[in-house]
Amino acid sequence: DSGVTQTPKHLITATGQRVTLRCSPRSGDLSVYWYQQSLDQGLQFLIQYYNGEERAKGNILERFSAQQFPDLHSELNLSSLELGDSALYFCASSVGPARRQYFGPGTRLTVT
Amino acid sequence: EDQVTQSPEALRLQEGESSSLNCSYTVSGLRGLFWYRQDPGKGPEFLFTLYSAGEEKEKERLKATLTKKESFLHITAPKPEDSATYLCAVLNAGGTSYGKLTFGQGTILTVHP
Questions:
Q1: Which of B100, B103, B105, B107 should we substitute to test contact with A (largest number of A Cβ atoms within 10 Å)?
Q2: Are B104 and A42 in contact (CB < 8 Å)?
Q3: Which residues of B touch A32 (CB under 8 A)?
Q4: In chain A, which among 33-72 make CB contacts under 8 A with chain B?
Q5: Sheet of strand A64-68, all strands in order from the earlier edge strand to the far edge
Q6: What pLDDT score does B30 carry?
Q7: Following DSSP, what letter does each residue of A67-89 receive, concatenated?
Q8: Half-sphere CA count of B86, side-chain side, radius 13 A
Q9: Do A2 and B43 touch (CB under 8 A)?
């Protein structure tokens, strides 16, 4: 158990819909990261927050957005969902931006 | 752009048959190279961090090494429970990519009893 929690574990929704994925980092970690893992793309970095502020951005689609709240939990919002958005979404946390990242168990999103 | 290439894509070993996985990388400023293990449907589990060429780390049957262009994960006398996907990632040192991990596609290791 890494100490990072993610909810829900599974999510099935239809194209065009909007969903919110939630992540609680390990106690004491200030940085939160979001990754997308699909069979053909591997593990892709989406976005990073540090103590409530955005620090780095990967190839995150404009339909996707994230935020980190004062209690340090983070949410990833995915809107206008397409079939290709079906993937595993992982949250990771670390003490700081350039430190070891601990991954959560992931949320499996299926868009039908 | 940071790039990580892992080889082979898949590796099948007999129990006790030692081997190595390769991770080649290009990064503008290496802050660290990480190895993770991932079981199907689960989150990556941290194994090692290497920071500079010549560094080596060991844990049970695994040993990771680092040069200026690549890293190797050596598996000695593997057991079936070592079967998993092994992921290599580089951490960029600066600029707008600070803290960003770039992952390779992974090596799927299967160890047969």
A1: B100
A2: yes
A3: none
A4: 33, 42-45, 48, 50, 55-58
A5: A5-7, A19-24, A74-78, A64-68
A6: 84
A7: EE-TTS-EEEEE-S--GGG-EEE
A8: 29
A9: yes
Question: What is the structure's pLDDT at B16?
Answer: 97
Burial of residue A62 (CB within 10 Å: 0-12, 13-18, 19+) is exposed
Instruction: Give how far Cα A40 sits from Cα of A43, A47, A49, A86, A109, Å.
Output: 9, 20, 26, 12, 15
| Per-residue pLDDT reduced to its tens digit, B21-34 | 999 999 887 889 99
| Nearest partner of B110 among B87, B85, B77, B76, judged by Cα | B85
Confidence grade of residue B69 (pLDDT, cut at 50, 70, 90): very high
pLDDT band with cut points at 50, 70 and 90 for residue B2: confident
How would residue B100 be classed by pLDDT, with cut points 50, 70 and 90?
Answer: confident
3-state secondary structure of A108: strand
**Contact yes or no for A42 and B41 at CB 8 A:** no
Query: So what's the pLDDT on residue A99?
Result: 81
Q: How far off is chain A from B97, nearest CA to CA, in Å?
A: 6
Mean pLDDT per 10-residue section of chain A, whose length is 112 residues: 95 98 96 92 91 90 97 97 96 86 96 97
**In this structure, what are the phi and psi dihedrals at residue B80, rounded to the nearest 5 degrees?**
-55, -30
A62: which DSSP letter?
T
CB-nearest partner of A55 from B36, B99, B101 = B99
